[in-house]
Design a protein that fits this description.
The chain is an alpha/beta fold and 297 residues long. Helix content is 38%, strand content 15%. The protein has one domain (2-221, 253-292): 3-Layer(aba) Sandwich (Rossmann fold), CATH 3.40.50. Strands 2-1-3-4-5-10 form a 6-stranded parallel beta sheet, sandwiched between helices. The chain has a two-stranded parallel sheet with strand order 6-9. Bound molecules: NADP nicotinamide-adenine-dinucleotide phosphate (NAP).
């Protein structure tokens, strides 16, 4: 498979890059950060797609987090919605598959059951609205496409100095510096390891999954508090973690209950493991996070 990866230096892009490089099914990988290909530029996207002539374009470029999208809605729309339009249209021209990574934030989180891929989307803030628009653009631009929704990603640090490290790294860093934490316990989601998501995307492409929307998350659900507590316990980091309510913490409204569910084709396996097993794998693979490697007072 020949792959063009966009947004390659973000949290997910960095891991898709490393995972694809190590995957023998990927015969050629061109990884483009924002400086290489700005997804808001129709010309830049088209040029890159025509130059590389990939079998698939994995678009992990995004504007996030949600508060920033609320503050800069035009930029959010350009990156999260128009970008996928240019990618999808360029892919259609050469019969490549555009892969758009979307989010549980397309749902309002008002229910109590996990959302299936055909669940009714009703985003409650700019980030979710622009991501849902990006999904539609992807579907409209090309007959062949994959939309993979995921949630609450944890994984190795991004290459880009501007992209944020994942939540697990940030709480571990704060706890190891002796800080106490306040973490929301009323937002329930599907924590997912970036490496498992990256592998899933490559599996879907390799097995020529039918065009459609897939929920690509590790198994099980957790509140952010539970994820934080589990990570710190696994790392042996003693820290006081106070559970707080979502509305005390952020400005953009968060959907409260957005676990994702759904079936994946047979060739997709690793992401079916529980998030706790994926977290263990992450914390073992990246020993810099472990207590014994840290200068903990
Ligand atoms: N993180 C999560 O928990 C989560 C959960 C569900 C879904 N997702 C989805 O997963 C995807 C990847 O998220 P992430 O966490 O990896 O985000 P991220 O770390 O913020 O990475 C996004 C990357 O996109 C790049 N970018 C921004 N504007 C661009 C533009 N105009 N052209 C090209 N690249 C641009 C950024 O470049 P700079 O670094 O140079 O700014 C950054 O490297 C997104 O689609 C997101 O919606 C994420």
């Amino acid at each position: 498979m020949r792959i063009l990866l966009l947004g390659a230096e973000g949290l997910l892009g960095t891991t898709v890059w490393a995972t694809a490089e190590a995957d023998p099914r990927v015969t050629e990988l061109v990884a483009a950060g924002r400086a290489d290909v700005d997804v808001t530029s129709r010309d830049a996207v088209r040029r890159a797609v025509l130059d590389v002539r990939p079998d698939a374009v994995i678009n992990t470029a995004a504007l996030m987090p949600a508060d920033l999208c609320d503050e800069t809605p035009e930029a959010a729309y350009a990156i999260n919605a128009l970008g996928p339009r240019w990618v999808s249209q360029a892919c259609a021209g050469i019969d490549a598959v555009p892969v758009y990574v979307s989010t549980d934030f397309v749902f309002d989180g008002a229910g109590s059951q996990p959302y299936p891929p055909d669940g009714y989307p009703r985003p409650v803030q700019t980030y979710g609205i622009t991501k849902l628009a990006g999904e539609h653009e992807t579907r409209l631009g090309s007959e062949r496409y994959l939309v993979t929704r995921s949630a609450c990603l944890f994984g190795p640090p991004p290459r880009s100095p501007r992209a944020r490290r994942c939540f697990v790294d940030r709480v571990a860093e704060k706890a190891s510096a002796g800080g106490d934490l306040k973490v929301v316990d009323n937002v329930i989601t599907s924590p997912t390891y970036t490496r498992d998501l990256a592998t899933t995307i490559l599996d879907l492409l390799y097995h020529k999954a039918p065009s459609g929307t897939y929920h690509a998350v590790n198994q099980g659900v957790a509140s952010w508090y539970e994820l934080c507590r589990t990570a710190l316990d696994r790392l042996g980091l003693p820290a006081q973690v106070t559970p707080i309510q979502e509305q005390n913490y952020t400005t953009a409204p968060r959907p409260l209950h957005t676990p994702l569910t759904g079936t994946l084709p047979d060739g997709v396996r690793r992401i079916r493991r529980p998030w706790q097993a994926a977290l263990d794998d992450y914390l073992v693979q990246y020993p810099a996070l472990r207590t014994d490697e840290r200068d903990v007072a």
